[in-house]
Four-helix bundle copper-binding protein
Amino acid sequence: MTQQQYQQCIDACLECMNACNVCYISSLKEYDLAMLRDCIRLNRECADICAFAAQAMTRGSDFIGEICELCVKACEACAAECGKHEHDHCQACAEACRRCAEACRLMAAVAK
Amino acid sequence: MTQQQYQQCIDACLECMNACNVCYISSLKEYDLAMLRDCIRLNRECADICAFAAQAMTRGSDFIGEICELCVKACEACAAECGKHEHDHCQACAEACRRCAEACRLMAAVAK
Amino acid sequence: MTQQQYQQCIDACLECMNACNVCYISSLKEYDLAMLRDCIRLNRECADICAFAAQAMTRGSDFIGEICELCVKACEACAAECGKHEHDHCQACAEACRRCAEACRLMAAVAK
Amino acid sequence: MTQQQYQQCIDACLECMNACNVCYISSLKEYDLAMLRDCIRLNRECADICAFAAQAMTRGSDFIGEICELCVKACEACAAECGKHEHDHCQACAEACRRCAEACRLMAAVAK
């Protein structure tokens, strides 16, 4: 694992955290709020897990493999839910989640 | 500041985190979801700040005074919003927020 | 999974977070600091993961199984390291870690 | 407050979190560990507060002013301590802390 690979995964997690939180606050303002319950819930979940993963990588955690595997699952679940909705913030979030899942999958494979 | 006073404030923060998160997930399932937008947002905010404050106290942070002052503001805002709603989870949350605000106000006064 | 089982696991995580952070700040003050490098590092790691797990359970996360599995690994690693040292705070931490690992193992088995 | 100003402050917090955690793990490996006790403690403190601040900004927290004021204090304390040590990681951390304190001071002035 090179320093560059670490940095790419950290960046993907931080971008995903940001996209999830933007989608979270935007969804809470939408008219069709009732359709976005799972989206809001998974946005927070995924943002918190991505933030945790990013910091774990910067502090050289012994558990990066496990944390990145967890992050893959959260990102995939959030991408699947946000991908159902046509709001721009949902689509942008789904896209960031897919990129982050890919980066974390790679990291988990190397770190364990 | 005695060890007992610390423990009381830590416990108040953890109970408030729990009540806020219970209110958060319960609100996301309610029929009158649209009226609970601010409640949901402040639940998460307050839960995260309480969790942060509790852990800061257990690790003997140098910034307990400032963190507890922040926690007072978050708890007061969440109590004010949740107090407007008649759902049991909102009322229970408002009550936990008020107790936590009181404990944190005392801690902030001593810690700074 | 009953509400009581959840609460027992949340409590075990919060007690472990507390014991890890007490061991962390105590270790940083010890004379034989150089022998406690891994202890300090794993204390922080385990405290952060336990705090994350406790909050994830209170917000009804979809990923409680995975998060509790991660917590088992962190607790086992921290217990193994702290168990090597005779300081009271290390022994107390190792004990809290073992209890938390047991509670999280049970939770992970049911939640997945 | 423009979106660009937010982004600059978020980036400063994330870079500071990273520098603090790099300094933290590097300090724990140093020969002169005993001189770095406060450095290690403040590194963790500052990293955790910066991470919290960055995520609070991405989720549009109502408490950005207070959180950024807290971040200023943590960054100043960490910069003062790390600035005393000649290790490259300490100097780099002190520099990142000063930049983050400046960005957060600006944000706090506007947000409150």
In short: The domain at 3-111 of chain D is CATH 1.20.1270.360 (Substrate Binding Domain Of Dnak; Chain:A; Domain 2). The CA atoms of residues 33 and 41 of chain D lie 12 Å apart. Chain D has one domain: 3-111. Residues 3-27 of chain D form the longest helix (25 residues).
